[in-house]
Amino acid sequence: MKKLFLLLVLLVSTVGFAQKGKGKPATKNVILTKVDNISAEIISEKSGKRIVLFVKSGDKIDTLEVKKIDKTDFKPTVFVVKSFTTQGKKFYHVNWKEQVKTDTKLKKETSDITEDQLWDTENKTLLLGNLHKKSHIKETIFLDANKTASHDVEKNRSEGFEFILNADGSFVLKTKTQNSTYVYNTASSKYEIKGAPKTSGGKKKK
Fold first, then answer.
1. Separation CA 39–CA 204 (nearest Å)
2. Whole-structure pTM over 0.90, yes or no?
3. Three-class SS state of 41
4. What is the pLDDT of residue 102?
5. Whole-number Å distance between alpha carbons of 182 and 191
6. How would DSSP label each residue in 59-103?
7. So which residues are the signal peptide here (predicted)?
8. What's the chain's average pLDDT?
């Protein structure tokens, strides 16, 4: 009996040790895209998730933070990293898109969110970060305090600037009424506005 008891104790101890040794499986990074020496990935940490660029240079790897992810269901419909050249400098354009839907009894909203970043990866510098949001909203509006009569209203809304990267490496930030062109200045190592912003808009009808 003593031998059998010792055998059972050893067996239980061995199983317990094996389970402790396994622990939690390591969380793998999610690779979004790769280009040249750059890998764009979602990494998981104790503080949350982040999108980063791993930039390899020889034996060294730099980590550039692109975005902290607040939503657990972050699923970009598009994620692209492309290189471009301007003023003899090679930079990278990071672009991703999301679609967010809100659906209640009184309001339905579909938002298309586009984010653009320009990176000087050699100097680990973010040259531009821009967010543009376009929303289509269908909302039920009540016509009286007792909410006995209502009608549906549909509208489109745009927030922020639309970003356009030109072939020469300059870019445009625009809205319905204004657009501005920015060019890279090698002396300041920054993008700077070219001329005065252009405005547009017709006269209001009486």
1. 50
2. no
3. strand
4. 86
5. 6
6. TEEEEEEEEEE--TT---SEEEEEEEEETTEEEEEEEEEEEEEEE
7. 1-18
8. 84
Question: What would the 3-class secondary structure string for 96-119 be?
Answer: EEEEEEEECCCEEEEEEEEEEEEE
User: On the CB side of 206, how many CA atoms lie within 13 Å of its CA?
Assistant: 0
Length of the chain: 206
Domains of the chain by residue range: 72-199
Cβ distance 126 to 118 under 8 Å?
yes
Coil, helix or strand for 13?
A: helix
Quote the tokens at residue 198: 């252009």
DSSP state at residue 204:
P
* 3-class SS of residue 19: helix
Nearest to 89 by CA among 121, 45, 41: 121
Angle at 66 between CA 57 and CA 197, to 5 degrees: 110
Q: Which two tokens stand for residue 127?
A: 């040259």
pLDDT tens-digit map of 90-116: 999 999 999 988 888 888 989 999 999
Bridge-based pairing of strands 30-35 and 38-45 is antiparallel
Q: Residue 140 and residue 55: Cα distance in Å, rounded?
A: 49
HSE toward the beta carbon, residue 62, CA cutoff 13 A = 15
